[in-house]
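Page 47, continued from p. 46.
Same chain as before, 236 aa.
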Amino acid sequence: MADDTAAEALPSLTGSSAEPFTDGYVGDPAVRDEWDNRYSERHRLWSGQPNGALVAEVADLAPGRALDVGCGEGADAIWLARAGWDVTALEVSGVALARAAAHARDAGADVRWVHAGLAEAALPPASFDLVSAQYPALLRTPDAAAEHALLAAVAPGGVLLLVHHAGMEEHHPDHHTEPQDNAFDPAAYVWPSMVAALLGDDWRIEVDEERPRVVPEGGAGAHHTDDVVLRARRLR
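Result:
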């Protein structure tokens, strides 16, 4: 299990679901604004249900301290909290976090919210028994900052669970059907294979596979039918 003092080292911009998180965003304002705009376009962007790969992969894990990277409207974080995990949930969109905190209050779930980018959040290192990143939109950088931040957050004995849509890494932007500014470029984002390539002998890969996705009803992304699932345990 992670050190119980780790929560004390979390950024001061955190809050609990019993009181709204304090907005002290740390990260790229352009990324925050992009996601705030996307969430603002719809009353609810996602299904409100926990991701199927998360539910399946944590079934055999004893609850401890969990980090939910890119928590969106909070479904995964709330599910983990109600299952006994001590949850910290990180998100760049303040619009999404406000919804997540409200949903958590309604569900009676206690979650610690962090309004920040992953690389900028200054999370306490090696402090989480589970780091879950479900379909994260993590931007690539020359120094692989997001990838290293994911790995650094996992406590010895803990698990990194990274899930993404299968086939997206090989997707090529179609500038004939998509405006240049909106064309999705997979080369700009972090994919499970990139994180797996950084794992050294202090990690053991437990799952690295493509599988059919448990598709929730409603919500963006429901058209994706297959997942890439990477589950790795930090040995020391």
